[in-house]
Amino acid sequence: QLQLVESxxxxxxxxxxxxxxxxxxxxxxxxxxxxxxxQAPGKERxxxxxxxxxxxxxxxxxxxxxxxxxxxxxxxxxAYLQMDSLKPEDTGVYYCAARTVENGWTDWNKMSTFFxxxxxxxxxxxx
Length: 127
Known about the structure:
With about 130 residues, the protein is mainly beta. The protein has strands at about 5, 10, 20-25, 30-40, 45-50, 60, 70-75, 80-85, 90-100, 115, 120-125.
């Protein structure tokens, strides 16, 4: 079993940056592909990015390229999402999720395909 705990969400001004963390508890972290998702108020949950178990390969949703960077440190059992040049429309609840690496990249942008999910952390971008 794997438990995921997100942190790092905050209130930030437009143009600011945040780094979200996702700590994994309970299993060999490197066996899991990790993805970040977000849900803005009144909108459907959307995939931001996914990273392979060894951290070498990443995929970003087209709309997320350029301002978001996913990474992981398996020695620390932690995945990260660096967010720069934040905009008010980035406001929402951000989730990390994990599934075993055998699933590959199939439907990576659908959180329902990730068996392990965190509770989310709130990001608010406002002046």
